[in-house]
Amino acid sequence: MRVACAGTPEFAAQALRALLRAGYEVPLVLTQPDRPAGRGMRPQPSAVKRLALEHALPLEQPRGLRLDGRYPEDAKQAREALRRAAPDVLVVVAYGLLLPQWVLDLPPLGCLNIHASLLPRWRGAAPIQRAIEAGDALSGVSIMHMDAGLDTGPVYRMEETPILPGDTAATLHDRLAGLGSGLLLQVLSDLRQGVAEPTAQPNDGVSYAAKIDKAESWLDYRRPAAELERRIRAFEPHPGTRTCVGDTQLKVHGARLGTGATAADAAPGQVLRADVAGIEIACGEGTLVLTRLQRAGGNAVDAAALLRGLPIRAGERFACESTGTA
Q1: In the chain, pLDDT over 90 holds for what percent of residues?
Q2: Looking at the whole model, is its pTM more than 0.85?
Q3: Lowest CB count within 10 Å: 13, 52, 275, 322, which one?
Q4: How far apart are CA 93 and CA 91, in angstroms?
Q5: What is the DSSP letter of 9?
Q6: What confidence tens digit (pLDDT) does each residue in 5-20 have?
Q7: Is the peptide bond before 154 cis (omega within 30 degrees of 0)?
Q8: For residue 132, which of 1, 248, 36, 232 has the smallest C-alpha distance?
Q9: Backbone torsions φ then ψ of 269, nearest 5 degrees
């Protein structure tokens, strides 16, 4: 079976790695163009590109796939490359480009997508983050036969995993990537044997995982502490969550719920205590203890180390609204 692959981040690289280890012929890899990254903002290859180059796989990086879109020449070149590759199936994992109908129709066995949720819950761009943020007890992966809709195609197989109390987007991502790679190999085996039968998604239980807006990273202490604690985990490591005390903006990497209720006379954002155990802040409901933070230009440190260089005392206020700084 000839299995082409379209993907960009590490989640997709794990799937490509599994295909290669299983001995599948990969006649073509599609990935996003190199993007500026790091302090120097130099163009960096995606995780999928690095792996494809390591294994000398044919590679295309179109800026778009629509023949009538902004980059028709890129689309034509990608179409010719796919036609030459003649894959039996195209595996799509966090690729980042919408697939037009000509791509969906090209492989005889269609296009498979590894989606990091238990469909139809959390269709869309950020299923891992939204599941943690919402307080879901379970997440999982779905192997879907792609159609023209947004994650609406029938599902071949699903596998679930619990969302643990300390899970961040990073830890859940790694667990789901491993599950997805294994499940993909099972579905490909089913296809090879002619026994794969996808099941249509139910109409009930549909939810959408909207792309994360930068404005969401700001911690608003007027919200319940439990909601903020989930958001911190959901947005770790990217895009992260931010807060501000005085003129100092901080990135928050870790937090836990406080043990007591908010003091009756404490306003949201007010510091109740600040010591080696963390910085406890009053919220709309309950309290939040910030335990790991990062100043601009510095490294992430625990609260005790931060307080040695940035004294914060009970009674001070953290901002509840964005300061407008980066």
Answers
A1: 91
A2: yes
A3: 275
A4: 7
A5: S
A6: 999 999 999 999 999 9
A7: no
A8: 232
A9: 95, -10
